[in-house]
Amino acid sequence: MSASEHQAAEALARGELVLLPTETVYGLAADAGDARAVAAIFEAKGRPRFNPLIAHVADATEAEAIAVFDGPARRLAEAFWPGPLTIVAPVRDRERVCDLARAGLDSVAVRVPGHARARAVISAFGRPVVAPSANRSGRPSPTTFADAVEETGFAAAAAVDGGPCAVGVESTVVSVLDGRVAVLRPGAVTREEIEALIGPLDSGGEGHRSPGRMAVHYAPDSPVRINAEAAGEGEILLGFGPHVGDSRWSLSPTGDLREAAANLFRRFREADREKPAGIAVSPVPAEGLGEAINDRLRRAAGFVG
Ligand code: AMP
Ligand code: MG
Question: Where exactly are the structural domains of the chain?
Answer without folding.
Answer: 5-209, 224-300
